Automatic annotation (TrEMBL):
Residues 1-17 form the signal peptide. This is C-type lectin 8. Residues 26-141 form the C-type lectin domain. One of its GO terms (molecular function) is carbohydrate binding. Keywords: Disulfide bond, Lectin, Signal. Pfam families: Lectin_C (PF00059). It comes from the Eukaryota. It comes from Mytilus galloprovincialis (Mediterranean mussel).
């Protein structure tokens, strides 16, 4: 074996060790897709129960990573933002306002009081607002050493 191959193997093993078993590593976070379906609030609580939160997607690179991760999955997926306090003012559950968006065409539309953010399969997992009481799959996110704050 070459030194380069051994070094690459160690780096790959180390990056996988940064996240718990079953979680996927990207940049400074670990992500877990949950196949169970819950409403937005219950999904956020389920993530908090494993020392995580619904995924917060502040960059194009992160949305592309999640879109690729979901490419073999089915259904729509909750991620961690709402505009339920002030309509049209989207905030991540951590309280941060959006500085990056990935809305599907003609979204968000607030059709029938839609205040929670999903990655919408029909639109190649671009963002869509939906009613918070609808049960969906969800994506949890946490830092390498569970350093992301748990909100709520």
């Amino acid at each position: 074996m070459t030194v380069g191959f051994i070094l690459l193997s160690v780096i790959i093993a180390f990056s996988h060790a940064l996240c718990p078993n079953g979680w996927r590593h990207f940049q400074d976070s670990c992500f877990l897709t949950k196949q169970e379906t819950l409403n937005w609030n219950d999904a956020q609580h389920a993530c908090q129960g494993i020392n995580a939160r619904l995924a917060e997607v502040q960059t194009h690179a992160k949305v592309e990573f999640l879109r690729n991760m979901l490419s073999k999955e089915d259904g729509d997926w909750w991620i961690g933002a709402k505009d339920d306090v002030t309509e049209g003012q989207w905030r991540w559950a951590s309280g941060e306002l959006f500085d990056y968006t990935d809305w599907a065409p003609n979204e968000p539309n607030n059709d029938h009081d839609q205040d929670c953010l999903q990655m919408f399969k029909t639109d190649q997992y671009h963002w869509d607002d939906d009613r918070c009481d609808v049960a969906k799959h969800f994506i949890c996110e946490k830092g390498f050493n569970s350093t992301l704050p748990v909100i709520g």
